[in-house]
Amino acid sequence: MDGDERVMRYIGPGLPGRTRAQTTEALARMVTYAAAHPGYGLLHASRHDDGSFVGGCGLYPLPESDTADIEIAYRLPRDCWGRGYATEMARAVLDHGFATLELARIVGVTHPDNLPSQRVLRKIGMREEASAVHFGRRMSVFGAVHKAA
Amino acid sequence: MKRVVPAPWLETLRLAMREFVPDDSDDLYRLNSDPRVMRFIGDGKPATRKRHADIMRRVLGYTRLYPDLGFWYTTRRDTGAFVGWFTLKYCGKSPDVEIGYMLLPDAWGLGFATEGATAMVRYGFDDLELARIIGVTHPKNLASQHVLQKAGLRDRGWGRYYDRRLRLFAAERGSQSR
């Protein structure tokens, strides 16, 4: 998945596809991160029926945010797009953020051209709030607040 | 010239904590001299330069006096910006160890106090094996009372500390729900 530039170009600052070595390194960072920060970091996602890998989704602090927000992140291998998987995993992670981590607010930051991802954020109940610079480029910022909060 | 500072010894999701160094005096003064920050601390008045110098000396020397306890200079991990400090220290002249924190107003309302306080509670119980950790606040400091409760301390009514009647919150080791 991380070797595919069609997946990676919208991630963070816009990344080229990763080599196997870079992917191994990134994966090690992910594992260490999740161990240090329970409830955060990218979660592995697979299909219930055949166990095949369909990508990952999770929560991270959004870097250099004035409001120190927590963002939802996800990415899926190209052949898993268009099946509602992203919406399904993002909805579960959003619930986890509100119910278990008791976050008051979660944001989603997407590249303005990444319309499929924006549809996912809308479907999980986020609203477009602003356009702001994140990861060194202008991004569309979506947000949702904890209903009980 | 770039400041040489100790590496952080404790990192939370968004914050990094390290020991204070003499060069941190100006940052600490931004807290001590801000009426919004000092409103519920001690006599409620911002610190004079003289008082600030006393506080700075105490902050710098605390860990040498009481190993493992101390005041921790705290920054945002993403921007490196100074946000304030957290502490685990004796509460006035009492034998109770208290959790404390002071944050710049522009770092309020972002969950930083809860995040740092929770880490202090965990450090106190898991690493120092303290039996009890308390938190005391001015009766009207509802925001801080809320933070202490979110960090796992329970409302224990009132206590007399620093020669004042303060609201008291406490947690005992093993009684933590999370």
Write the layout of secondary structure elements.
The complex is a heterodimer of chains A (149) and B (178).
Chain A: H1 5-8, H2 20-36, E1 41-46, E2 53-61, E3 70-75, H3 85-99, E4 105-110, H4 115-123, E5 127-134, E6 137-145
Parallel strand pairs in A: 3-4
Antiparallel strand pairs in A: 1-2, 2-3, 4-6, 5-6
Chain B: E1 10-11, E2 15-19, H1 25-32, H2 35-38, H3 49-65, E3 70-76, E4 82-90, E5 97-103, H4 112-127, E6 132-137, H5 142-150, E7 154-161, E8 164-172
Parallel strand pairs in B: 5-6
Antiparallel strand pairs in B: 1-2, 2-3, 3-4, 4-5, 6-8, 7-8
Query: Termini separation of chain B (Å)?
Result: 43 Å
Mean pLDDT over the residues of chain A: 93
Biggest sheet architecture of chain B: 8 strands, mixed
> Which of globular, elongated, flat, extended, rod-shaped describes the shape of chain B?
globular
In helices, the fraction of residues of chain A equals: 25-40%
Separation of the first and last Cα atoms of chain A: 37 Å
Rounded to the nearest angstrom, the radius of gyration of chain B is 15 Å
Element order, helices and strands of chain B? Answer: EEHHHEEEHEHEE
Please give the largest β-sheet of chain A: 6 strands, mixed
| SS element count, helices of chain A | 4
Tell me, rounded to a whole number, the average pLDDT of chain B: 94
Instruction: Report the β-strand fraction of chain A as a percent range.
Output: 25-35%
What strand line-up does the widest sheet of chain B have? 1-2-3-4-5-6-8-7
- Considering DSSP H and I runs of 4 or more, what fraction of the residues of chain B is helical? 25-40%
Any idea what the shape of chain A is?
globular
How many strands appear in the DSSP assignment of chain A?
6
Order of helices and strands of chain A: HHEEEHEHEE
Gyration radius over CA of chain A? 15 Å
Q: Tell me how many strands of chain B there are.
A: 8
